[in-house]
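hey m, so remember when u said the tokens were messed up on ur end? i reran from scratch. heres the input so u can diff it against urs
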Amino acid sequence: MIKTVGLTKKYGDMYAINEIDLELDEGDLFGFIGPNGAGKTTTMRIIATLLEPTQGEAYVCGHSIYNDAKEIRRLVGYMPDFFGVYDDMKVIEYLEFFAAAYRIKGQARRDKCNEMLEIVDLDFKRDAFANTLSRGQTQRLGLARVLLHDPQVLLLDEPLSGLDPRARIEMRNLLRRLGELGKTIVVSSHILPELADICNKVGIIDRGVMNVNAAVADVMKQVRERIVLNVRVKGDQNLAAKVIEELDNVDTVSIGDDVIVVTLEEDATDYSEITSELVKRDFKILMFREEEVNLESAFMTLTKGVGAKI
């Protein structure tokens, strides 16, 4: 759906982005993460055909940004970080105005606008003036606008920026639903936790260079060197810890906060013997889980010292 090859944009001697390679498939929800000024907006504007690269190529659904810009604009819905709304327009009028620009006519236009308001949960504001909406409601209205022509690709620049906690949760849930509809979505943010739980792929960019570009599962796998387990049993925790310590594939065992923390040996993935041995020794297992590595920890590990080298 989206492919970039060596995408580069220079302003004089300064690189806004430098050889960005990206490939996304249908239904991917890609978290584009990096500090302000890292190159996220530049990349998205080039993909949306709103900015020409200095060199490199980008394709959307097989169409080149150089030769098929008009077709790409039919396939893409681009929402910038900040956008204006007309002071004297009601919400429904605002959507109907842009639907008319997309040449959606008559009853089909009214039906489409009503459908979009329902999708973004803004139908209760249909007759409110657009400039009276909160920041979160304005963001949802902007999303409704870019969905009017049913684009296959959504480029959303900082859609969670400036939202209160409730509005951020609502927007994340909305993005999940759009991903389930098969749309390919690129969502940028400078705050990692905002996207950590909704994306299946992630790209981390800093000073125009893509430092990390992989599936979230692969990022976690790359960061985690060993499997860590948290175990709680009914009975003598110290005795249970000694039982576990004697088993194959176990490297270290410790007890903290009434939980036995078990670290397996490097490359060990099978820990079924732990549960079977505990049950065999008449321990009742109250908790047994693999410790998760969150995306924020992965980010800090993978980008450690990178900024200083660029």
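this time it looks ok to me. The chain has two domains: 2-222, 226-292. if urs says something different then somethings off w ur setup not the seq
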